[in-house]
Amino acid sequence: MNQSKDKRFSLMALLASAVLLISLLDTLGSIAYSRAQVNRSYQGQARLIKRYEDVNGLSGVGEDVLEIRLEPDASKRKLVAIRICSKQPLVFASFRAAIDPFKTAEFMRDYYAYAPDKIFLLRSEQCLSSQHSETEAAEIWITSTEDALPQSVESLRFAQIKRSSLGRQRTNRGVRDYQAAVQILIKRLRANPESRGVIIGYYLNHPNHLLRKRIHEAERLLVKKGVSPQRYHALLSQWYEGDSSYPNSEPRYPNVFIVETTKSTARR
User: Fold this and answer.
1) Which is the most buried residue in 62, 112, 145, 149, by most CB within 10 A?
2) What is the 8-class DSSP label of residue 166?
3) Where are the beta strands (DSSP E) in 125-254?
4) Which top CATH class is 161-261?
């Protein structure tokens, strides 16, 4: 009888030890997993280089992004992102951004050797400026992985988007042959459903009445040809004073742009 009790006791002790060991291994596994998650989160964390609330030219941006070279860990700057904070679609918001995302992306490609598929253009509604301004805030980020990019509702690689200026007769920050340029725009909008058109008139202090008139003419032509309002955007924008090619008189002609993209990626 005593031997039977001793065996049962030994068996119960063995089972208790096994349960304790399993619990200990599970705890250690959870700790190791948590540490791994923290390490991955740290390694994939995006870093904000600069936020712009007010308009800034490419020369200023060039000075700011020098900070990217100061990041000693090359893996943390594998990708660069230009995020626009706006409720407008990405293509249209890019023309109101505090920095020119296209020129900035070209600068990162040409002077920092970022391949076009390593440069991202993003749009987010979670970083909107508190200022009451027509200028959309913009940010420059670096990160190691695409999953670690800052939050956005639209995401495009620079390799997926192309901005082209239409019209051949260049003049003071516009094109004289804007009507012919709009006709070309209409044809290209019809040819590519993912493309968008922008008619933009730059001014110094107050928009010239002829500039306003010509923008309205361009809009009427688009309407007459049945182009959906979702496919184009017309706007006036003050010319940044830091621009080296700043004109001496108010521009009288608009610019006509087409922005062609492949399908964008929606993000969290």
Assistant:
1) 149
2) E
3) 138-143, 154-157, 161-166, 170-171, 174-175, 196-203, 232-238
4) alpha beta
